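Researcher: First entry.
Model:
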Amino acid sequence: MMIAGGCHAAPRVVGDVPIADTRVFPENIAASPDGTLWIGSVGRAAVYRALPNERTAAPWIAPGAHGLKRVMGLYHDDSRNLLWVCDAGERPADGSRGKASIRTFDPRTGAPKDSYPFEADGGCNDLTIAADGTVYVSDFENARIFRLRPGAKAFTPWLADERLAAVDGLAFLADGALYANTFREGGLYRIPLDADGSPGSPVKLMVSQALERPDAMRAIGPDTLLVAEGGGRISAITIRDDHATVRVVREGLTDGPAAAVLVGDTVYAVQAKFAKMRDPAADPGEFVVAAMPLQ
């Protein structure tokens, strides 16, 4: 089972990584095995990149390039050498939702590769990839998970369950199950997969301490998840049967942690500052990818 989406061993320059732009409002972050970082921007509809020897993340896919509207989830596909990008579509003033899609890009050049629409008016937030190459995406607003099997041309509904309201972070662990969190409830669920790939019934795990607005989630070991909590924490969660032991990596992050990845022994986390996004006249200040030891 693929569990490397948030955990990479290669070294990079250790330290905070400023993002060289304004009003970025980053929602997700991805890392490659060599320690390259990519940051997705809701505010600019762009992707920023910091190579392993660079201390600043610079624009890499320009704002609005290739029709991007709102960049949400990111995932570096190590086996196929692709960067998967969730474009959540436009958000009109009336609150309606634009058409979402998932794009792939060459992680070396930024060249666009493929684009995958959603059936059944699906949306996208976080995403992860199974060992067989199937891509799974959370549909936050509709309590659904979509999937794209290898060779398919569109994402199709895989699981709809009212318990997954505001489903957000997704990750596979070595047991072969898909793990999902729910942003509003603070729930953590294990979703077993049947032999044919169909979903079993979600099992809510008992967490050792409450999760506050859990967001993007990545596997950092065979039984451990790295979770960004919008309430101000980065946590490592170890799963044993139906129990989840939470260890706080860093707390006191006041600007809304949205996603984190592990490179070597260092966690890199983005803070979205979404509370400051609603006022175009407000100055949200500098956006920085925060570096912290996993410990």
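Researcher: Second entry.
Model:
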Amino acid sequence: MTDTDLHAKAMATFAALFDEAAAAGEPDRTAMTVATATLDARPSARIVLLKAFDARGFVFYSHLDGRKGRELQANPHAALLFHWPRVREGVQVRVEGAVESVADAEADAYFASRPRGSQLGAWASRQSETLDSRASFDERVARAELEFEGREVPRPPRWTGFRVKPERIEFWYGAQFRLHERHLYERDRAGVWQVRMLYP
């Protein structure tokens, strides 16, 4: 099996498990932990929703000026973690890789698909800045509503998508007595994909 085939197999495995998560009734299979870090290696993590995935990587959206946006601009690497306890005996998928911004056209298309309330919220939010009261935020939402009344809401210039381009994808399958099964797909420095099993 070539390294290209291994990459395709890893993504196909993710897609199959993603479908299993839906069939198993996971409350939100798109929920993932996104871990980022500052240049001086101070990590932070939060739950974000996966919005797209394909051979190029895994996509989520956010403000450039929030903490994760700032960290990804300074240190464009991230780790993702999916946890689906209802799939089989529990499944985790870990992804690590470099991060790039999606094309403007891709971000525009996704933003246009969002509910209008979410679009207005993106304009109203100064993500991660101090908020003196909920009323202040509600006022900003109301102002955005007036500003865009009767017309489409455009994507804010500081709101975009990030694509994590996988360099490591690990599939963790839970088993009784902690005899778990782990498969690691990894791209080496030459860009060649390899796969190996790991002890649990």
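Model: Note on the second entry: The first strand starts at residue 31 and ends at 37.
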